[in-house]
Design goal:
Elements (H helix, E strand, L loop, with lengths): L1 H24 L18 H27 L2 H15 L7 H33 L4 H18 L3 H10 L13 H40 L7 H15 L2 H11 L3
Helix pairs in contact: 2-4, 3-4, 3-7, 4-5, 6-7, 7-8
């Protein structure tokens, strides 16, 4: 079988070579040659469209990582996952709904940061008032300010010690590659704390239902079969979605 594939490949290469040679001998017009080059430009407006395309393609590639590391997406997604687990609803809401809701809540919370980046970095660079290096620095500063606001000092100290760095005197002395992982584990810690609080009222319902079934001798009937409707009823009666979303957004105010 392998020998047959090798023969087919060799035969194909030979035919392509002969076909190309035939075109070379005849006066048949070939496609034009295309050259792609890079020329130096001193005007930011000349490279703005290309620069925007490069930024767009880069962001599309790194979008999942950027959403996870630099925004509030991690906390929101984990909290909603805890809520679904506490309700014992299985796959309801589905993963698509949980991720979609987390994504749009992230856009809502991060809107002021995005506006600040646009006003201080993107628009001035396109207008030619600042350089590319200055634009990058101005764009990074609002994100660092946001992450510092919700990062525990203990977590920053952890990664500073792991990197064997000198103790930073100010926030500006903390590198971004130290700040990002510290921010992530701080967000995970906060999300787990909120998730624990979400579990408590539903855990009480599970315990009450299990005790009632045990006292009635219904040890074969799974308590979750009875407790799940009561959990959903309690969540609807207290307008749970409103309370959860309000608590999440106010946590970033």
């Amino acid at each position: 079988m392998h020998k047959m594939l090798l023969k087919v490949c060799l035969f194909s290469l030979v035919m392509i070579s002969l076909f190309s040679a035939g075109f070379a001998d005849e006066d048949t017009p070939l496609p034009l040659r295309v050259n792609i080059g890079i020329e130096k430009s001193t005007n930011p407006k000349d490279i703005a469209p290309i620069f925007q395309v490069v930024i767009l393609m880069t962001l599309l590639t790194l979008a999942p990582a950027l959403l996870t590391m630099l925004t509030c997406f991690t906390r929101i997604a984990v909290i909603l996952s805890f809520l679904r687990r506490a309700l014992a609803m299985g796959t309801q809401p589905s993963n698509q709904i949980v991720i979609g809701l987390s994504l749009f809540l992230t856009f809502y919370v991060m809107a002021p940061v995005g506006k600040e980046i646009n006003d201080k970095a993107i628009t001035p660079y396109i207008d030619g008032t600042i350089t590319q290096k200055q634009a990058f620095k101005e764009a990074l500063q609002p994100i660092r300010t946001f992450m510092f606001k919700y990062t525990n000092k203990k977590d920053i100290a952890l990664f500073v010690n792991i990197a064997k760095m000198e103790k930073p005197e100010t926030k500006d002395d903390i590198p971004t590659h130290i700040l990002i992982p510290a921010y992530i584990i701080s967000e995970l810690k906060t999300a787990f704390q909120i998730g624990f609080l979400l579990f408590l009222p539903f855990l009480v319902i599970d315990m009450v239902v299990a005790s009632v079934l045990l006292s009635m001798g219904m040890i074969v009937l799974p308590p979750i079969t009875i407790s799940t409707p009561f959990k959903v009823l309690l969540f609807v009666m207290v307008d749970g979605w409103n309370l959860i979303i309000q608590s999440i957004t106010m946590g970033f105010s």
